[in-house]
Write a structure and sequence with these properties.
heterodimer, A: mainly alpha, B: mainly alpha
């Protein structure tokens, strides 16, 4: 069977080859993406030693249901995003290959320092890829904040190593509850703030607006779907398996995540640019999903993670496409654009409605479970989630109505009024939009299809990690 | 005002971390008083992680090298990639392949003659450092940095040096590919990526420690060529896109 280390090594190998043969780098990228996507489906569960040293003395990769789902999701989304933004890749195929290796490594590794290395690889690639839109100042801002975040994480694991004496995640997950209160406090704060920069939580997220509001068709799906999903998956791993937070610190963390959710959703109602609205919505979803992981709702969080990843994939690439063709993505000016492109419009609409959580769509099932999980904690959290969803509904439905119905109020909407705005007739976007749309509707009608699967995925989050019980290939 | 606030924040963070760790209840080991018996490092020092391996299990006289290239070799591959992607970022953003920066002061005779003497010495020391990485302190990263420093000297003294830089791309790619190929041989023959499949030999000999010196040479070459590329890119003038 396929050793999952290949998912990390093959993109690296292709990138090293690509340095020598620059003209083939784009074909190498797609070769690597396809190969990785196929391999991800054939990876097997287990613990894989590197260098032949048993953990915790060497590094090992841990493939349980959760990380298996993670690598499949990441590789598929990465392939789709690169197909959507194929024209924009240009010289950036090698950073994309490295980014893929880094993201796979982040999800697979079972070693705290090895995670840091892959975290660095993935974020440095992200800085480079984000220069595609030419806003260097924003990239610099991102770079500074991202570096501070990863340094905080590094400081956290230095303290872990000094106390636990090992860098293995399984060791930390077993020993964490036995550590003294002080160490628990400092380690959880440092690791939380380190990850929060990438996870877009307030007050660590000032880079997001600059990067996300300027995306193009390549970076839009890449950042909003691939990078975002990876960091949520990792966040879930850290704060469900490794670190258990309790007491006042738990309340602070929860407050941070849900304040992020409400603030972002509220800000989204105030702007009228498609990409800006989607940016705020992404920040909001980040708050919601990380908050769910914190209160122990792994199942609901994974449901919403899937919902967010696919919905944002379609919506962000559509918005970026609109911007690229018209140098503006103001909703007012784009009114009625979906009349001209009904297929994309269908996918966009279903994604938005699913993200809000309306019945008949997959998102309803997710929201239903979210509220259910939230009621197990106290009455404030479900209230906050409902309020946020209401705000979400307001701006998304306002946006959808505008985009489908041209003309002023009281005016009869006709084809003539439809905006002069255009979109590239990208075959990939239409196909992705239609497929995702149908999947969301399917998931809404037969929730059991996804329910059982996600249940399996989220079970490893409830147990502490172990590397010895599962067989080695 | 901004500086004042950031200084204040830094002090607050420092005080917070210090007070939490210095507390007697925190069990944070004092400097030099760590109990090694419960840490993984004890086994690295005694070289008895794996009972079935022939002893000495890594065969490297330098314990840091054992950890960096053998026990945690995968991290080193990752670090190489970090350097690789950073070099690539410099190349992409500075838009390479344009004119070399012309300094206002031309390289004079003394500089040219001096560089010819000194680069050879620096190169040899750099190569010595990464070949002997498993015996003495040092290794691929410092050795590579020394190689790059000699390249920087040549770059400053020689106007025509730019044309020779193409070779570094090939070196960078080949050494990276070879590291991974060696790792993959371990994966397919011994079921574990980067498995040290060569005999470890006698500690202290030049040909000992199995795969470690070979990997360190490759790492040294890769780091050297990457850093040289970065230098080359910084010393070229970015043109219009």
């Amino acid at each position: 069977m396929i050793n999952p280390v290949l998912l990390i090594v093959i993109p690296l190998l292709l990138a090293f080859v690509g340095v020598m043969f620059k003209s083939f780098s784009k074909s190498l990228l797609f070769f690597g993406l396809v190969l990785n996507t196929i391999f991800a489906f054939f990876a097997q569960k287990g613990s894989y030693e590197l260098g032949g040293w048993q953990p915790p003395f060497g590094i090992n990769l841990l493939v349980d249901n959760y990380s298996l789902f993670g690598i499949v999701l990441i590789n598929v989304l990465f392939l789709v995003s690169s197909l959507i933004g194929m024209k924009k890749i240009g010289k950036y195929s090698l950073p994309l290959l490295i980014a893929l290796a880094g993201l796979n490594g982040m999800v697979l590794t079972n070693d705290l320092f090895n995670f840091y290395v892959f975290f660095e690889i993935a974020t440095i690639s992200a800085y480079i890829i984000s220069t595609l839109h030419g806003k260097y100042h924003q990239t610099f801002n991102y770079l500074v904040l991202g570096s501070v975040g990863s340094s905080l994480y590094l400081l956290g694991i230095i303290i872990v190593y000094a106390v636990v004496g090992s860098l293995n995640m399984s060791d930390l997950s077993v020993h964490f509850s036995g550590l003294s209160q002080n160490i628990q406090l400092i380690v959880s704060i440092l690791i939380f703030s380190g990850l929060a920069v990438e996870a877009k939580l307030i007050p660590f997220n000032s880079w997001v607006r600059g990067i996300y509001s300027n995306v193009n068709t390549l970076t839009a799906p890449l950042f909003s779907a691939v990078y975002a999903s990876t960091i949520f998956l990792v966040f879930g791993r850290f704060f469900s398996n490794l670190i258990t937070v309790s007491g006042p610190l738990f309340n602070i963390f929860i407050a941070i995540t849900f304040i992020t959710f409400i603030f972002a959703e509220a800000s989204a109602t105030a702007t009228k640019n498609m990409r800006e609205i989607l940016t705020f919505s992404s920040i909001g979803q980040a708050g919601l999903i990380t908050g769910l992981f914190l209160i122990g709702g792994g199942y609901a969080a994974v449901l919403q993670l899937i919902n967010n990843a696919f919905a944002k994939l379609v919506m962000f690439s559509t918005a970026a496409n609109v911007y690229e063709n018209n140098s503006s993505d103001s909703i007012d000016k784009a009114a009625g654009i979906f009349r001209k492109y009904p297929l994309v419009g269908f996918g966009f609409t279903v994604s938005a409605l699913s993200l809000i959580g309306l019945p008949l769509f997959y998102g309803f099932y997710a929201k239903f479970n979210i509220i259910n999980t939230a009621f197990n904690t106290n009455w404030i959290i479900p209230l906050v989630i409902l309020l946020g969803s209401l705000l979400e509904g307001v701006y998304y439905i306002r946006m959808l109505v505008k985009l489908w119905v041209p003309g002023e109020e009281h005016e009869e909407a006709t084809e003539k009024l439809t905006t002069k705005f255009s979109m590239n007739k990208l075959f990939v976007i239409s196909v992705v939009a239609v497929v995702v749309g149908f999947l969301f509707i399917m998931g809404g009608i037969y929730p059991e299809l996804f329910g059982d699967f996600v249940q399996n995925v989220s079970t490893p989050l409830k147990e502490s990690l172990s590397y010895l019980s599962v067989g080695v290939m | 005002m901004k500086k004042f606030i950031s200084a204040l924040l830094t002090f607050a963070l420092a005080f917070f971390i210090f007070s939490l760790l210095y507390d007697s209840e925190s069990f944070f080991p004092k400097y030099g008083e760590t109990d090694l018996n419960n840490t993984v490092s004890q086994k690295y020092i005694e070289k008895n992680v794996d009972e079935t391996r022939p002893s000495p299990e890594t065969g490297s006289a330098n314990i840091v090298t054992s950890v960096v290239v053998n026990y945690r070799g995968f991290d080193t591959l990752g670090e190489l990639t970090v350097l690789f992607i950073s070099a690539m970022g410099v190349a992409l953003l500075l838009n390479v392949g344009k004119e070399r920066i012309i300094f206002r002061v031309k390289p004079n005779f003394i500089l040219k003659a001096g560089v010819r003497i000194i680069t050879g010495i620096i190169l040899i020391v750099g190569i010595y450092i990464f070949i002997h990485g498993h015996l003495t302190p040092g290794g691929g990263f410092p050795g590579g940095a020394m190689i790059a420093s000699s390249v920087l000297l040549m770059y400053i003294s020689d106007d025509k040096f730019k044309e020779k830089m193409k070779a570094f791309n090939v070196l960078e790619g080949t050494s990276g590919v070879l590291v991974i190929v060696l790792g993959l041989i371990g994966l397919f023959a011994f079921n574990s990526f980067l498995y040290n499949f060569l005999p470890s030999g006698e500690i202290g000999q030049l040909f000992s420690a199995g795969l470690t010196p070979i990997l360190y040479v490759l790492i040294g070459l890769k780091v050297g060529s990457e850093l040289s590329n970065i230098i080359g890119n910084f010393l070229t003038q970015g043109g219009e896109k």
